[in-house]
Amino acid sequence: MGKRKKSSRKPAPARQKIPLDTTFTCLFCHHEKSVTVRMDRKEGVANLVCRVCDQRYQSKVNHLTEPIDIYSEWIDAADAAQREDPPRRPAASSSRVARAPAYDSDDE
Q1: Which pLDDT score is estimated for 41?
Q2: Measured between alpha carbons, how far apart are the two ends of the chain, in Å?
Q3: DSSP secondary structure letters along 23-65
Q4: Which residues have CB under 8 Å from 40's CB, separation 6+?
Q5: Whole-angstrom distance, CA of residue 69 vs CA of residue 62
Q6: 3-state secondary structure of 79
Q7: Distances from the Cα of 46 to the Cα of 21, 60, 104, angstroms
Q8: Which of helix, strand or coil describes residue 9?
Q9: Where in this protein does the record put region Disordered (predicted)?
Q10: Is 60 exceeded by the pLDDT of residue 69?
Q11: Distance, CA of 54 to CA of 35 (rounded, Å)
Q12: For the segment 21-61, what is each residue's pLDDT rounded down to a tens digit?
């Protein structure tokens, strides 16, 4: 038997891992890159905090969870809360009860 010929094909280039975002835009104050996600995989908890308006969100994590996943959960939770509690009209600033208009029967 003879020797195998070496392949003339070039090896495939190594895939570069593109880093995912770790800072995001706040849903409430709309500041860019003000929301950070800190994940404690040992405790299984992630904390999301906006450093401008101090909005906070906490979620459970596992070994596959990334910061973008926590941000997406926060968006979903905010949408669900908004659908659940519709905005109400503000109450009148006066604490007095408004009187019903008085009708005089003498003017007839």
Answers
A1: 92
A2: 126
A3: EE--TTT--TT-EEEEEETTTTEEEEEETTT--EEEEE--TT-
A4: 46, 47, 61
A5: 11
A6: helix
A7: 15, 6, 68
A8: coil
A9: 79-108
A10: yes
A11: 9
A12: 889 999 999 999 999 999 999 999 999 999 999 999 999 99
> CA nearest 70: which of 42, 33, 43, 38?
38
CATH code of the region 23-82: 2.20.25.190
Q: Smallest Cα–Cα separation from 61: which of 51, 72, 52, 50?
A: 72
Exposed (0-12), middle (13-18) or buried (19+): which is 63, by Cβ within 10 Å?
A: exposed
The domain ranges of the chain are: 23-82
At residue 5, what is the residue type?
K
Share of the chain above pLDDT 90, in %: 55
**Residue 63 phi, psi (nearest 5):** -70, -15
